[in-house]
């Protein structure tokens, strides 16, 4: 179980109920990526293991279960959403020049740019092999050779491909917004719906389709995922200002250095009067040393009320995510999904 | 028709018969990538248009037709193999630092590394959207709303995903072989079967599956593609030594500078006696200025007979490709495929 223990014990019991699912995912991930000689395989293994939180695979498993069709048959699809996520992170680290990921050297730092690009490609393309080989691969695991029916698998392929392209659109848009404090909250929200929301949507909608959910159930889980994605990213943007940066694993300095417009900063820009806005722009314009800039930004986020407003909006999105679950039959799975929504705005990293 | 005119008139009439297919592909490619505001879309359009030879889409179309199931219904799948190809070229140019592609600035040179990585990702991921949306999208074009049946589309997704991963394996392996003249022909042939062969195989096998070919027909077209891929890459490696580099669009100097072991060079290394081998290693070891190295390599390729041997082996692969076609009913499509095999070892660029 790689979800942080503190969250599991503090937030709710339902997440503890996800433990068997997490163990299944971890066991299967390890089985599929043995230590092998081929370089590309080795690097892929390095990128995937030790695994991260496996949040997206968990969402897929629980979404499938929430509509009555989860279990081992959807494990390959669940892992494939992780490949898509990790493949995009590997490329992200090339793009941003990030040398650390999950507390150890990024693929780019450890193996170089060339292998990082190629490995990211292989992970992303492999998604669709794993999705469509599901029927065969799930066999030995389940003792049941039948994976999801072909029309459901095709539906999942379509959803994953769309999510992958949306993720790229979000990344391209993020590049355009860089340094643009005046981009406005709307464009920022569109960007994070694409960049962060896409894979949450793929996981939940894909799970609902593979699990045989009705159109209404698919819709409910898609909406859940969209609100969850917003809540998750809004909270992520808040982390540097609400917990010490070592715990957050990500520093406000890095956001400032990269001139990344983040949720609280954009809210602050929108809420502030002219003088505060001018100070914010100066702080983020590279005029001050980064540490001083951070102090100024933090102070402005507090005094304008932006920090509180951002926190409230993130919580509201998590609440809306949970309310979407009311359209589904109450089950262990929906309780886990609700707990994930709570966790998305309470985690400290 | 973007295949070089000289090849069409010199080689055979059958290729001229591919003209309507090529026109269909070009029209559809242009329709699907209108000029739009979104940056990622613009860059994708720049990468795709003006189109290259569209050789892989043509192979898919003709393979489908060869088994009795071609036409507009498989156009989306045909275009998707081009997206996979172009996406990988966009990343290749980032990796190799190439600033030119098809006679104009590469995506990386024109838009920068970040957008090139993201655009390549979007093209590769988009493949699976186009493949699975085929049924809907082919509708207006064909006046027939039914695309290929779901089981065939799933088969094609599986083949494309596998091909995509193989392509990456080939690229990673190419990196490993760089500078290693002693890597041996076997490893080189494995590498090009992955790197170049993968997409030819995806195109032909994918076409055979989507067109409803029998397992024997699928196998025949897969074998055709594998031999074609070898012939194509062997000839590609020969181009710098058999035509002037401007026509070839690729220079021997670049292969030498990148310490890329190529087919004639590896053959030469295997065939040469100790003194010639020592001279070859010195020339490719960076000891000489590139132009002098090229002169020496060229001379050694001639005197050891490696150039002739390489040409013979490429032709033999093209012949084997053609012989695979005998297992299919004779048709316009098989004539085009045979002509492509001839072209693969007679083109001068």
By CATH reckoning, the class of chain A would read Mainly Alpha
Q: What is the approximate shape of chain A?
A: globular
**What is the CA-based Rg of chain A, rounded?**
20 Å
- Give me the CATH fold name of chain A: Farnesyl Diphosphate Synthase
Q: Structural class of the secondary structure composition of chain A?
A: mainly alpha
The topology string of helices and strands of chain A comes to HHHHHEEHHHHHHHHHHHHH
Largest sheet descriptor of chain A: 2 strands, antiparallel
Total domain modules of chain A: 1
Total DSSP helices of chain A: 18
| pLDDT averaged residue by residue of chain A | 88
* Percentage of residues in helical conformation of chain A: over 70%
Fourth CATH level, the homologous superfamily of chain A: Farnesyl Diphosphate Synthase
- Weakly predicted, low-confidence segments of chain A: 1-11, 135-145
Give the name of the CATH architecture of chain A.
Orthogonal Bundle
Record field, number of beta strands of chain A: 2
InterPro entries (chains A, B): Isoprenoid_synthase_dom_sf (IPR008949), Polyprenyl_synt (IPR000092), Polyprenyl_synt_CS (IPR033749)
Organism (chains A, B): Streptomyces violaceusniger
GO molecular function, one term (chains A, B): metal ion binding
Keywords (chains A, B): Magnesium, Metal-binding, Transferase
């Amino acid at each position: 179980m790689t979800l942080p223990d503190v969250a599991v014990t503090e937030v709710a019991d339902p997440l503890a109920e996800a433990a068997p699912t997490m163990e299944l995912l971890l066991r299967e991930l390890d089985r599929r990526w043995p230590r092998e000689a081929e370089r590309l395989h080795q690097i892929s293994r390095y990128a995937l293991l030790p695994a991260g939180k496996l949040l997206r695979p968990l969402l897929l498993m629980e979404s499938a279960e929430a509509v009555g069709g989860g279990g081992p048959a959807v494990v390959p699809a669940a892992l494939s959403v992780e490949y898509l996520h990790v493949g995009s992170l590997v490329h992200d680290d090339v793009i941003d020049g990030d040398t650390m990921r999950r507390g150890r050297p990024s693929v780019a730092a450890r193996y170089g740019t060339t292998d990082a690009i190629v490995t990211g490609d292989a992970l992303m393309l492999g998604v669709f092999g794993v999705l469509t080989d599901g029927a065969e691969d799930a066999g030995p695991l389940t003792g049941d050779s039948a994976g999801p029916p072909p029309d459901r698998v095709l539906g999942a392929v379509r959803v994953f491909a769309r999510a992958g392209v949306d993720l790229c659109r979000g990344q391209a848009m993020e590049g355009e917004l860089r340094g643009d404090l005046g981009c406005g909250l709307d464009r920022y929200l569109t960007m994070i719906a694409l960049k962060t929301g896409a894979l949450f949507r793929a996981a939940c909608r894909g799970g609902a389709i593979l699990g045989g959910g009705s159109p209404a159930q698919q819709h409910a889980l898609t909406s859940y995922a969209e609100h969850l994605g917003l809540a998750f990213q809004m909270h992520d943007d808040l982390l540097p200002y609400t917990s010490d940066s070592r715990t957050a694993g990500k520093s406000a300095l890095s956001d400032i250095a990269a001139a990344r417009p983040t949720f609280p900063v954009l809210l602050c820009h929108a809420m502030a009067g002219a003088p505060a806005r001018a100070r914010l722009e100066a702080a983020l314009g590279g005029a001050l040393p980064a540490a001083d800039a951070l102090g100024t930004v933090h102070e402005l986020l507090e005094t304008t009320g932006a920090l509180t407003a951002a926190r409230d909006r993130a919580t509201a999105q998590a609440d809306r995510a949970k309310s979407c679950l009311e359209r589904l039959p109450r089950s262990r799975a929906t309780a886990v999904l609700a707990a994930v929504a709570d966790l998305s705005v309470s985690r400290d990293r």
